[in-house]
Structure formats: C-alpha cells, structure tokens
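[Automated response] Your request has been received and processed.

Submitted sequence:
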Amino acid sequence: MVHGVDTRPPDRLVRDAAGARTVDDLAALLRALRRRHARREGQRVLSYRVLATRAGWSHTAVAEYLTGKTLPPTDRFDVLVGLLGASPVERGVLASARDRVDEQRRVTVPMDPAVGPVEPVVRAVPRQLPPALGHFSGRRTELAQLARLAPATDPARQSTPAGTVRIVAVSGTAGVGKTTLVVQWAHQVADRFPDGQLYLNLRGFDPDGSVTEPATALRLLLDALGVPPAQVPDDPDAQTALYRTTLAGRRLLIVLDNARDSGHVRMLLPSSPQCLVVVTSRHQLTGLVAAHGAQPLTLDLLHPSDAAELLRRRVGQRRCAAEPTAVDEIVARCAGLPLALAVVAARAVIAPRMPLAALATELRVARHRLDALAPDDPQLGVRAVFSWSYQALSPSAAQLFRLLGIHPGPTVSAPAAASLAGLPVARVRPLLAELVRANLLNAYPGGRHGLHDLLRVYAAERARELETGSALDAALRRLVDHYVRSAYQADQTLQPNPAPTVPGPARPGVVAELPTDSQAALTWFAAEHTVLEAVFDAAVAAGLRSEALHLTQVTYTYLDRRGHWSALTVMQRSALQLARQVGDVAAAAVAHRNIARAYTRTSRYAEAEGHLGAALKLEQGRGDLARQGLTHLNLSLLRERQERHREALAHGRTAYEFYAAAGDRRGEGKALNVVGWQHARLGEYAETLTWCGRALQLLRELGDGPGQASTWHSLGYAYQHLGDPHEAAVCYQEALELFRRLGDRHLEALVLSSLGEVGHDTGDLAAAEACWGAAVRILDSLRHPDAEPVRAQLNGLTGRG
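Generated structure:
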C-alpha cells in the first residue's frame, strides 16, 4: 500500500477481462475459468456435455460459446460464468466485458478530437422475431419435424451441397397457427444463428391486395441487414445479388411469413447454406419443393385434445375443469382452428365471471346466424367467432375496428387512427387498448398497431355492411389529410422553403402529427414512409389527386437527405405521370426537378439535364420566377458535377436574379452562396468571401439551417485555399455540425473530406486519415461515386494505393 493505494497486481482474469475486445477474447476467458475451476475442485475440466446438462442447453451451444464461434446471450453468459466458479466481482467484470464485445462487434465508431464522432461502421445483427406465445400448446409432432429439418449442429458443417439454401415450407389453412408454430420454434433455436434472425410478413393474402412485393421485401430485408437505402440499386436482379452478397458466409434464420406462392419468395432466397429459410403460406409451395428442394411441412387442424389443452392454458385449468361440457362444445365449434380458439379464449379472459356455457351458447347461435364454424370450412368459422367477439366491443371501439379495415398501410399510429375515426387522440387510445385486449388488434413497439390479415378482411366487411359510402369516403379523406399535413409539417422542419402550401383547410376531425425539430421529423418519416407509399396509392384510387401529388412533394427532402434515391425516383415518376393526367403543370415541373436532383446525386447527368430542361420550360410558360430560380440552382449543381464551373456560375447568378425579382429572400440567400461557391471553384476566393458573407448574414436572419451549412462549407473552402487553415477548420466544423443535425449524410461526407484536406495541409495526418476514412465509409454506404477520389487521397496517405 502506498498512501492508501493497493499496489498488489490485479487478478489476471480481471485484468484480461478489462482488455477483452472480441468474441475470441471472451471465449479465452471462459476457457481460463473452466481450467481454474478444475484446479480448485481437484477434478478434470467440465465437459461440454456436463455443462450443457447443468445449464439445460444443447452441448453444441456450449461448445460454440467456449470456442468463440458464438457470443453467448447475456442471460446465458451469466449462467455460464456462475457454473465455472466466477466470484461476484469477476461476474461483474466479465459481464461488462461481454457487453463491450457485443457493442464492439456491432458498431465501431472512430473518434477524432478535430471532428468528433464520425459515421459508424455497422454490421447489423437483426433480432426481428415476433414475441413467442407464452401459452403455446400442442404441435409436438410438428416441432419434432422442424427439429429434424434443422438439426442442432453448426450450419456451416451441414452436409449440404455448396450454394444450396436450406428451406422449410410450412403450409396450412388460414388461422391454423403457421406463424405461431414457426415463431415458437424459431425462438428455441435462435442461438444457433449468431448473425441474427430476420422476419418479414409478406402479406400474400391481404384482402385489399396490399401484398409486400418481392422488390419491396428485398429493400426491407437489406435495411434490416444494415445496408443503407442509397446502396440499393434500381434493378431487381441487382437488388437480389446485393442481398445474397450481404448474406454470404453469415448464419441467419430467415422467416418469410404469409407468402402468396413460390414465386413470391424466389428473389428472397439466399445462396448461402449457412442460412435457414422458413416460408409459411396458405398454399402448398410445390414450386419451392420441386425447384429448390424445400422440405414441406403441412399444418393441419388441432387434435381435439390439443385444442382443449390450448383453451385450458389460456382460460385456466380450474375454470375449464368446472365446465367440461362447455369446453368440449367450444372445441368442437372452433373445429380445431387455433385462431378461433384464441379469440374465444380472449373473450373468456376479458369476462372472467361469464360461464363458459354462455360462450358455447353464443357460439352455437352464431353458427346458425353467421356461417357456422364447420370442420370443412374453418375460415367461415373464424368469421363467426370474430362476429360475436366484435359484438362484445363498445360501440366506439367497434366503429374504430371497422374503419381500421380500410387503412391502406401495414401499421397505424394513434394520431392516424384518430384522424381516421374523426376523434381526439385521447379518446382513441382507450379504444385501441380495448381492441388489443379483445385480440382484434396487434400492438407493436413505438405505439403502432396493425390488424391480422383475416381480421382486416372481417373489419373491411363490417365497414362495407354498416358504414355508408359517404362515411367511408369521409374517413379515407381524413386519413389522407392526416398524412398530407403531418408530412408537410415534418418536411417544413427539415427544409422550410421547398414544400408547397397545404391544400385547403384541415377537414374536421383531422389530428396532424407535428414534429418540432429535425430529429423528430426524421424519426416520423422513418416510421411512416412505407405507409405514405400505400396512402399515395389509396389517394389516387379515391380521386384525391392533388393530395397524392402533395405527398410526393413533401416526402422529397426526407428521401433525398437519407439517400433513398431509388425510392425517390420511383415516387417522383408516379407524380409526373399523375400531374400529366390531371394537367397540373406546376406539379409536373416539380416532379421533373426532383427526378433530376436524384439523377444528379447518382451521376446520371444526361438524364438529369433532360428533366431540368423540361422543368424550366414548364416554369417559363407559367411565369413562375421563384421556381425558375430553383431550377437554375439545380442546373448550377449539375454543371459543377460536370466540372463546367463557368456555366455553373452563370446559372447561379441567373438564379439570384430570378429570386430577387420574385422577392424570395430565402432563395436569394441560397443563390448568393451558390455564386460564391462557384467563384471559389474558379479560384476567385476573395469573391467567395464577399458573396458567401452576404449569404450567411441573410440565411441566419431567416433561420435557414441547410442554407447556412452549405455557406459555412463554401467559406471554409475559400479560407483553406487562401492559406488560412485555422479559419477554414472553424468554418468546416460549423458546416459539419449543421449537416449532422440535419441528417444529410452525403453533404456530411463532403465536409469531412474537406476537413481531411485541412489536416493533410497542416501536417496533422492522423486527423486527415480519420476524416477521410469517415467520409469514405459514408459515401460507400450511399454507393456514391464521390467515394473514389476521397479513397485515393486516403490510400495515398496510408500507402495502400
């Protein structure tokens, strides 16, 4: 001890745990514990099988944990170190090491004091399985068959021919429990797939035709795997190739639920035998069996004993034992269909004082009144069960349930549901909770809800039967209005000037969501942008063409800023077609310009020029000065990318003149910056400071964050080339902070590239390497050609060229 400090060397295990950074490091610690435990106990080291028996796991799982093939889940890791004799202090240190390794393998974030944290390198480990059912029963034969199809061994050691993907095709009638079975089993074997579990509902049998098409499914799967949206190509074959490349060598479980047919999933099959794919469908997937060697598993109705056990587990053993005759009748009326039994059980749980005999009587009456539950047609029986479960709802919840049947998207937020029903959010939340309790609505994280596809059928049927055509039309109009206004508010938060005015006053009962800052707006768009695509289609079908066009305009900034350029192009092409159909010249010009921006971003310059020329011609015909100014700014950007800077400067000056004539001060500020920037690109740096100084003052007055960010970058570039690296770095830092706050990853990367040049010029090579490396990672994730010149600078610095 020196001055009260313990100078004894720390325990080696604790010291090594503090330095653990990889799964192999962690496995070495577990092996060291195992050897120490044997020495202390004076016995041979515990075998994998002994450890597995004591822990209740498979010996294969234990072997993978101790050899570093798999990172143990947190709960299993705690059990394992306890079995190996770790002390309480060691357990805490080892738990911290395990969490650090888990974080390290997912995200590595470089840090440099000059630029702060830079873009993380992410290898996503998806955990998308829905929750397993706590009271699952029966299906022992099917679970055993699944176990044989996916034996408890390392998938990499399977005797599967190279390039052959392993597939299980689970089929059966609607409501027979395909998803429940597969999810239950998937949770049991999840630890055998250390690279994650993907789950996707393909909605192959949705009543309104809202099928998740293969191209959309590919984008969702790539997103879950950590592939940035901008990296996804337009061509479906190229998307499939990227998906399979991303999965190469990885061990994932992929559950593709509710497939329409074999063709629905062919593009979604990986080529790696380390992956296991489970497909569920109401149809026999003979194409997968014949062409891809899928193992078929047909799910039949529950045996009466299993059906009775399911009911007892959900309702309670004592209650069912008191009324065995009623249980037998309920089981018979439900015809062994798990979904029907689940709804009956939910009704019984919600009404604990109701005799089961009363439920059996209701079901018996419903059988005569609404297509009996019959073994030869269980789907009709589901309708019968839904009918009296629905009738037990309060009138307000029943109406909300009906209206949810016409919502076009896969999930809905509480404010959107409120707008659909024309009610305040405070009144709708209890109604949503009532529907969830009745098993008529699914609750998802983030306060979102969705209908099972059969429930969507039933809800839509009830809506058509009980709501007037005018009431349904009004509900759909309120819903579209909700998304138009919410998207408008989010877009204005991201970029105040380009969005058009919201068309007309809000309809009565519409509750718009109002993101208050850019991060909230980005979060809202991330949750809703797939719903917005469905709402766009519904608006077009309902004749709400101006609202549909407005949606394409107010989603542009989000899609552009986050690099969703492929999706942006698809939506803007639809907008252009719609604008031409309705003769909306202004909307057609906007669509041309937005398509051109996406093409400019992705270096498709000839196509971009054609669309900008078309936009300018339309705007000249309308005499729209401000919009002509905006198109000239886009032309300036295009000419700059083509290295035609004198022409780019001319377009910038023309844009300024148009904005000034229109009295558009925000546009003037942006044009001033563009003119200054083009002077810099021509080596006229003193001119840059003059023009950009004026731009920054004006844009600050207007509170225009994106404009200020671009102007700070222009000023930094000028100071850098005037030989003032300190002032350049200050300006670049201002731009970097703003672009990060705005979520514009492309421009963030360009500023990082400029900061790297400043570091290189001043001899701070570590800062240069950090900045250029971060820029390359962002641009690579966006699949952007700007990555190549930055990569060349980085390689020259590190000697990797």
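Summary generated for your ticket: The radius of gyration is 31 Å. The first strand starts at residue 107 and ends at 108.
If you did not submit this request, please reply to this message.
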